[in-house]
Amino acid sequence: MEIDTSVIERNGKVMLLAYDQGFEHGPVDFNEKNVDPEYIVSLADSGFFTGVIFQEGVAAKYYDVKKHKTPLIIKLNGKTSYQKGRDPLSLQLCTVEKAIELGAKGIGYTIYVGSEHEEEMMVEFSRIEDEAHKAGLVVIAWMYPRGEKVKGKETDKETVAYAARLGMELNADFVKVPYTGDKESFEWVVKSAGKTGVLAQGGGKKTWGELEEEVKGIVGAGAKGLAIGRNVWQAEKPLDVAEKLSKLVYGRK
Questions:
Q1: pLDDT (tens digit, 9 = 90+) per residue, 131-146?
Q2: 176 in catalytic set
Q3: What dihedral angle (degrees, nearest 10) is formed by the CA atoms of 179, 180, 186, 190?
Q4: Does residue 140 sit in helix, strand or coil?
Q5: pTM of the model
Q6: Is there a catalytic annotation at residue 62?
Q7: Which of 13, 105, 157, 176 is the catalytic position?
Protein backbone atom coordinates (compact mmCIF):
# COMPACT_ATOMS: atom_id res chain seq x y z
CA MET A 1 0.00 0.00 0.00
CA GLU A 2 1.42 3.38 -1.04
CA ILE A 3 1.24 5.95 1.73
CA ASP A 4 0.42 9.56 0.92
CA THR A 5 3.18 11.42 2.77
CA SER A 6 2.09 14.73 1.24
CA VAL A 7 -0.35 15.15 4.14
CA ILE A 8 2.62 16.34 6.24
CA GLU A 9 4.62 17.98 3.44
CA ARG A 10 4.79 21.40 1.80
CA ASN A 11 6.73 21.77 -1.44
CA GLY A 12 7.94 18.25 -0.76
CA LYS A 13 9.44 19.33 2.57
CA VAL A 14 8.54 18.73 6.21
CA MET A 15 8.73 20.94 9.31
CA LEU A 16 7.21 19.40 12.42
CA LEU A 17 6.73 21.14 15.74
CA ALA A 18 7.81 18.66 18.41
CA TYR A 19 6.33 18.78 21.91
CA ASP A 20 7.05 15.37 23.44
CA GLN A 21 9.81 16.76 25.67
CA GLY A 22 7.54 16.98 28.71
CA PHE A 23 7.28 13.20 28.71
CA GLU A 24 10.93 12.49 27.95
CA HIS A 25 12.56 15.17 30.13
CA GLY A 26 9.90 16.30 32.59
CA PRO A 27 8.93 20.00 32.77
CA VAL A 28 12.55 21.21 33.00
CA ASP A 29 12.41 22.59 29.43
CA PHE A 30 9.33 24.72 30.10
CA ASN A 31 8.59 28.22 31.36
CA GLU A 32 5.27 29.70 32.51
CA LYS A 33 4.11 30.14 28.91
CA ASN A 34 5.26 27.03 27.02
CA VAL A 35 4.33 24.64 29.81
CA ASP A 36 0.76 25.10 28.53
CA PRO A 37 -0.03 22.87 25.53
CA GLU A 38 -2.69 25.38 24.39
CA TYR A 39 0.16 27.78 23.62
CA ILE A 40 1.97 25.13 21.58
CA VAL A 41 -1.17 24.33 19.61
CA SER A 42 -1.50 28.02 18.75
CA LEU A 43 2.10 28.04 17.48
CA ALA A 44 1.49 24.89 15.47
CA ASP A 45 -1.52 26.49 13.81
CA SER A 46 0.48 29.55 12.75
CA GLY A 47 0.83 28.16 9.24
CA PHE A 48 4.58 27.57 9.36
CA PHE A 49 4.48 23.86 10.27
CA THR A 50 3.38 20.76 8.39
CA GLY A 51 2.64 18.79 11.56
CA VAL A 52 2.69 18.80 15.35
CA ILE A 53 3.98 15.96 17.54
CA PHE A 54 2.21 15.09 20.80
CA GLN A 55 2.01 12.18 23.17
CA GLU A 56 -1.47 10.67 23.61
CA GLY A 57 -2.53 12.65 26.68
CA VAL A 58 -1.67 16.07 25.26
CA ALA A 59 -3.44 15.22 22.01
CA ALA A 60 -6.54 13.94 23.83
CA LYS A 61 -6.84 17.03 26.02
CA TYR A 62 -5.69 19.84 23.73
CA TYR A 63 -5.99 18.84 20.04
CA ASP A 64 -9.39 19.16 18.40
CA VAL A 65 -9.38 17.64 14.93
CA LYS A 66 -12.39 19.81 13.95
CA LYS A 67 -10.70 23.01 15.10
CA HIS A 68 -6.96 22.60 14.57
CA LYS A 69 -5.67 22.53 11.01
CA THR A 70 -2.08 21.35 11.52
CA PRO A 71 -1.77 17.56 11.00
CA LEU A 72 -1.34 15.59 14.21
CA ILE A 73 1.41 13.02 14.77
CA ILE A 74 1.10 10.86 17.87
CA LYS A 75 4.22 9.51 19.54
CA LEU A 76 3.38 5.92 20.44
CA ASN A 77 6.24 5.13 22.81
CA GLY A 78 8.32 6.97 25.35
CA LYS A 79 10.50 6.71 28.43
CA THR A 80 11.39 8.97 31.35
CA SER A 81 14.67 10.73 32.00
CA TYR A 82 15.23 8.43 34.98
CA GLN A 83 16.62 5.76 32.63
CA LYS A 84 19.96 7.60 32.54
CA GLY A 85 22.92 5.39 33.38
CA ARG A 86 21.72 2.32 31.47
CA ASP A 87 20.95 1.39 27.90
CA PRO A 88 17.58 2.94 27.02
CA LEU A 89 14.37 1.04 26.34
CA SER A 90 11.18 2.73 25.10
CA LEU A 91 8.04 0.65 24.65
CA GLN A 92 4.58 1.23 23.19
CA LEU A 93 2.18 3.29 25.30
CA CYS A 94 -0.49 4.29 22.77
CA THR A 95 -2.15 2.10 20.16
CA VAL A 96 -2.48 2.85 16.46
CA GLU A 97 -6.26 2.60 16.90
CA LYS A 98 -6.23 5.30 19.60
CA ALA A 99 -4.02 7.55 17.45
CA ILE A 100 -6.59 7.30 14.66
CA GLU A 101 -9.41 8.12 17.10
CA LEU A 102 -7.51 11.25 18.13
CA GLY A 103 -7.29 12.35 14.49
CA ALA A 104 -3.64 11.55 13.79
CA LYS A 105 -2.29 11.62 10.25
CA GLY A 106 0.90 9.91 11.34
CA ILE A 107 2.59 8.09 14.20
CA GLY A 108 6.08 8.22 15.64
CA TYR A 109 8.15 5.61 17.46
CA THR A 110 11.68 5.77 18.90
CA ILE A 111 14.26 3.03 18.40
CA TYR A 112 17.51 3.46 20.31
CA VAL A 113 20.06 2.08 17.88
CA GLY A 114 23.03 0.63 19.75
CA SER A 115 21.08 -0.06 22.93
CA GLU A 116 21.17 -3.61 24.24
CA HIS A 117 17.36 -3.42 23.94
CA GLU A 118 17.29 -2.36 20.27
CA GLU A 119 15.89 -5.68 19.04
CA GLU A 120 12.90 -5.45 21.37
CA MET A 121 12.07 -2.00 20.00
CA MET A 122 12.61 -3.08 16.38
CA VAL A 123 10.23 -6.02 16.77
CA GLU A 124 7.58 -3.78 18.34
CA PHE A 125 8.05 -1.08 15.70
CA SER A 126 7.71 -3.63 12.91
CA ARG A 127 4.28 -4.66 14.18
CA ILE A 128 3.21 -1.04 14.66
CA GLU A 129 4.43 -0.10 11.17
CA ASP A 130 2.24 -2.83 9.64
CA GLU A 131 -0.83 -1.64 11.58
CA ALA A 132 -0.24 2.03 10.83
CA HIS A 133 0.41 1.57 7.13
CA LYS A 134 -2.65 -0.66 6.79
CA ALA A 135 -4.65 2.27 8.19
CA GLY A 136 -2.98 4.72 5.78
CA LEU A 137 -0.97 6.59 8.42
CA VAL A 138 2.46 8.11 7.85
CA VAL A 139 5.10 6.30 9.91
CA ILE A 140 8.07 8.20 11.37
CA ALA A 141 10.87 6.35 13.13
CA TRP A 142 12.96 8.28 15.66
CA MET A 143 16.26 6.46 14.99
CA TYR A 144 18.46 7.65 17.83
CA PRO A 145 21.94 6.17 18.33
CA ARG A 146 22.17 5.65 22.07
CA GLY A 147 23.63 3.05 24.37
CA GLU A 148 26.92 1.45 25.33
CA LYS A 149 27.68 0.20 21.79
CA VAL A 150 27.62 3.72 20.31
CA LYS A 151 28.78 5.77 23.29
CA GLY A 152 30.72 8.81 22.07
CA LYS A 153 29.67 8.12 18.45
CA GLU A 154 26.04 9.27 18.60
CA THR A 155 26.46 11.88 15.82
CA ASP A 156 29.21 10.19 13.81
CA LYS A 157 28.56 9.90 10.08
CA GLU A 158 28.57 6.09 9.92
CA THR A 159 26.58 5.64 13.14
CA VAL A 160 23.79 8.00 12.03
CA ALA A 161 23.83 6.56 8.50
CA TYR A 162 23.38 3.06 9.96
CA ALA A 163 20.46 4.30 12.05
CA ALA A 164 18.84 5.92 9.01
CA ARG A 165 19.38 2.76 6.95
CA LEU A 166 17.73 0.63 9.62
CA GLY A 167 14.70 2.91 9.51
CA MET A 168 14.43 2.47 5.77
CA GLU A 169 14.86 -1.32 6.04
CA LEU A 170 12.08 -1.35 8.67
CA ASN A 171 9.82 0.46 6.14
CA ALA A 172 9.51 3.84 7.86
CA ASP A 173 8.29 6.69 5.65
CA PHE A 174 10.58 9.12 7.47
CA VAL A 175 13.44 8.76 9.91
CA LYS A 176 14.23 11.39 12.53
CA VAL A 177 17.95 11.40 13.29
CA PRO A 178 20.57 13.67 14.83
CA TYR A 179 22.51 16.00 12.56
CA THR A 180 26.08 14.89 11.94
CA GLY A 181 27.45 18.44 12.04
CA ASP A 182 28.14 19.19 8.38
CA LYS A 183 26.45 18.96 4.99
CA GLU A 184 28.94 16.54 3.46
CA SER A 185 28.61 13.84 6.11
CA PHE A 186 24.82 14.29 6.30
CA GLU A 187 24.58 13.67 2.55
CA TRP A 188 25.74 10.11 3.26
CA VAL A 189 22.99 9.74 5.88
CA VAL A 190 20.37 10.88 3.36
CA LYS A 191 21.75 8.57 0.68
CA SER A 192 21.79 5.64 3.12
CA ALA A 193 18.08 6.14 3.84
CA GLY A 194 17.15 5.69 0.16
CA LYS A 195 13.49 6.53 -0.51
CA THR A 196 12.81 7.05 3.20
CA GLY A 197 12.77 10.77 3.96
CA VAL A 198 15.31 12.08 6.48
CA LEU A 199 14.27 14.57 9.17
CA ALA A 200 16.88 16.13 11.43
CA GLN A 201 16.08 16.60 15.09
CA GLY A 202 16.21 20.13 16.46
CA GLY A 203 18.08 19.22 19.63
CA GLY A 204 19.04 21.58 22.45
CA LYS A 205 18.87 25.36 22.45
CA LYS A 206 21.05 27.16 19.88
CA THR A 207 21.60 30.75 18.83
CA TRP A 208 19.86 31.77 15.60
CA GLY A 209 23.22 31.84 13.81
CA GLU A 210 23.99 28.27 14.89
CA LEU A 211 20.51 27.09 13.97
CA GLU A 212 20.54 28.80 10.58
CA GLU A 213 23.88 27.25 9.65
CA GLU A 214 22.69 23.83 10.76
CA VAL A 215 19.40 24.00 8.83
CA LYS A 216 21.17 25.14 5.68
CA GLY A 217 23.42 22.10 5.96
CA ILE A 218 20.47 19.78 6.58
CA VAL A 219 18.45 21.05 3.62
CA GLY A 220 21.54 21.29 1.43
CA ALA A 221 22.31 17.63 2.10
CA GLY A 222 18.94 16.65 0.61
CA ALA A 223 17.04 15.94 3.81
CA LYS A 224 13.24 16.27 3.80
CA GLY A 225 13.29 18.71 6.69
CA LEU A 226 13.13 19.05 10.46
CA ALA A 227 11.33 18.02 13.61
CA ILE A 228 12.05 20.91 15.93
CA GLY A 229 10.72 21.94 19.33
CA ARG A 230 12.78 23.76 21.94
CA ASN A 231 14.50 26.04 19.44
CA VAL A 232 11.06 27.36 18.51
CA TRP A 233 8.90 27.38 21.64
CA GLN A 234 11.75 28.39 23.99
CA ALA A 235 12.58 31.38 21.77
CA GLU A 236 11.68 34.90 22.84
CA LYS A 237 9.79 35.34 19.56
CA PRO A 238 8.89 31.81 18.44
CA LEU A 239 6.86 32.83 15.40
CA ASP A 240 9.75 34.90 14.06
CA VAL A 241 12.00 31.85 14.38
CA ALA A 242 9.35 29.64 12.76
CA GLU A 243 8.97 32.03 9.83
CA LYS A 244 12.72 32.20 9.22
CA LEU A 245 13.00 28.42 9.45
CA SER A 246 10.13 27.95 7.02
CA LYS A 247 11.93 30.02 4.41
CA LEU A 248 15.02 27.86 4.78
CA VAL A 249 13.10 24.57 4.67
CA TYR A 250 10.37 25.21 2.06
CA GLY A 251 12.11 27.87 0.00
CA ARG A 252 11.20 31.55 -0.03
CA LYS A 253 8.30 31.16 -2.44
A1: 999 999 999 999 999 9
A2: yes
A3: -60
A4: strand
A5: 0.97
A6: no
A7: 176
